[in-house]
């Protein structure tokens, strides 16, 4: 049976069995991984497809999935789903209500100039092997790993309300990690890129540049010390700004975490940070030459993606929602329900989350800082639902009298409460970039996301160090 006919049959059969709402989601996902490490290459290429089905019966959900795409199997799992939902409804005190949405019939394909499949996997292996030879130019580099991943994800979502959406998404990701050693001191250098695009990715970001960057940084940082701890004037690059927007602010505005008691609960219409800060989560966001990796025209409930202004000029103005939680919060659905595979239920997730540009040039930001540190390149980080965070950067440069010096420090750690840090703004730059590196968020399920913003100057705490 053709897949669209099967999805329509699922809707009809589930209604016949007593479901009030039915959502049938097909996914065909191709993924290829290539890992080079110290001369050896490992590859893993494959695809997986199947359908996920959600039914709502008497205000109660049930979800089932299968990779057996037959009419007979569909009947079996749909019957089970309806039975499960009906039985659970009997003990449910609070019934699920779905917010109304626009019924749409649309198709979309992600931006690309050349398909990733137009370059053979053998050619990609050769490119990585050639780029890896640059390690030999750096005597201090003892280890090099280059990881490449490409995903082509096709989805079709039908609902019994009449929505019919289809899209195909293409995303390449590449990471280079080098480890250098000098006189017993060890340091890592890291560089990564991921965008929504095709094989033009390799022209936007030549692998030679990736490897050079990671090798140079690891060699340079092997001589560096930790920065001094304390409160300093800090200049944050696009990635650090992006992770603040995504990890420390964005998660607090996801509807499930709002209802669980995050910092932003009950804050709509209230001032939460400096008026120069506006934070947005959007289904599409372009940088200079590429589309953000969080490109998502529709979500996995078939809802058309909407821009969410989480904070507008320092005031809390929006939450990211799905249909169920939008009803509970009394807001509109925003198209933020996402599932990693057909076998996963959609949950509220971000897409492209960023701080909007201000009006200060890079030179003006440095002048406003005077003396301080310039933090570059995200390494790691964590945050909680109160906005408390700890983010590790790869490097920091000393700023003296408004000038970036050659004095470099390794592994600076920015810490504090995001809402407080963004209340201590020195200046917001006008040089927007969205690029979170490898672009993966790990909330329950993996998801490709992006984040960014302009350079921002703040007064904040560096933890640990000398």
TrEMBL record:
Gene Ontology biological-process entries: proteolysis
Organism: Candidatus Heimdallarchaeum endolithica
SUPFAM superfamilies from the UniProt entry: Putative modulator of DNA gyrase, PmbA/TldD
Family: Belongs to the peptidase U62 family.
Protein name, per record: TldD/PmbA family protein
Location of the Metalloprotease TldD/E N-terminal domain: 22-85
Keywords: Hydrolase, Metalloprotease, Protease
Pfam family, one: PmbA_TldD_3rd
Zinc-finger keyword on record: no
């Amino acid at each position: 049976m053709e897949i669209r006919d099967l999805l329509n049959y699922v809707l009809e059969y589930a209604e016949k069995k007593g479901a009030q709402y039915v959502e049938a989601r097909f996914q065909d996902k191709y993924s290829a991984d290539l890992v080079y490490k110290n001369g050896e290459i490992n590859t893993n290429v494959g695809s997986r497809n199947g359908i996920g089905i959600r039914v709502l019966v008497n205000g109660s959900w049930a979800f089932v999935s299968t990779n057996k795409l037959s009419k007979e199997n569909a009947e079996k799992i749909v019957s089970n789903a309806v039975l499960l939902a009906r039985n659970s409804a009997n003990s449910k005190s609070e019934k699920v209500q779905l917010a109304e949405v626009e019924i749409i019939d649309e198709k979309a394909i992600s931006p690309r100039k050349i398909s990733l499949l137009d370059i053979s996997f053998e050619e990609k292996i050769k490119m990585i092997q050639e780029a890896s030879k640059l390690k030999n130019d750096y005597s201090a580099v003892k280890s090099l790993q280059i990881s490449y991943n490409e995903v082509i994800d096709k989805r079709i979502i039908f609902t019994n309300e009449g929505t019919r959406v289809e899209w195909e998404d293409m995303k390449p990701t590449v990471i280079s990690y080098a480890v250098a050693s000098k006189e017993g001191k060890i340091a890592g250098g890291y560089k990564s890129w991921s965008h929504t695009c095709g094989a033009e990715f390799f022209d936007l970001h030549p692998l030679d540049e990736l490897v050079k960057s990671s090798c140079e940084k690891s060699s340079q940082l092997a001589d560096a010390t930790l920065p001094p701890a304390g409160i300093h004037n800090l200049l944050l690059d696009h990635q650090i700004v992006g992770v603040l927007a995504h990890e420390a602010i964005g998660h607090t505005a996801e509807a499930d975490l709002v209802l669980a008691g995050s910092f932003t609960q009950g804050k709509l219409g209230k001032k939460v940070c400096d008026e120069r800060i506006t934070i947005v989560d959007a289904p599409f966001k372009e940088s200079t030459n590429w589309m953000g990796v969080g490109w998502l025209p529709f979500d996995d409930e078939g809802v058309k993606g909407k821009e969410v202004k989480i904070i507008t000029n320092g005031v809390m103005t929006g939450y990211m929602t799905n249909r169920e939680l939008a009803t509970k919060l009394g807001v509109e659905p925003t198209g933020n329900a996402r599932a990693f595979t057909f076998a996963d239920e959609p949950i509220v997730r971000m897409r492209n989350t960023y701080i909007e540009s201000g009006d200060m040039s890079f030179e003006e930001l440095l002048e406003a800082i005077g003396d301080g540190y310039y933090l570059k390149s995200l390494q790691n980080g964590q945050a909680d639902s109160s906005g408390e965070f700890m983010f590790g950067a790869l490097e920091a440069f000393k700023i003296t009298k408004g000038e970036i010096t050659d004095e470099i420090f390794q592994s600076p750690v920015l810490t504090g409460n995001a809402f407080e840090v963004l209340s201590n703004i020195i200046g917001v730059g006008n040089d927007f970039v969205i690029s979170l590196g490898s672009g993966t968020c790990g909330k329950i399920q993996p998801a490709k996301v992006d984040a960014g913003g302009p350079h921002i100057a703040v007064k904040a705490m560096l933890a640990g160090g000398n």
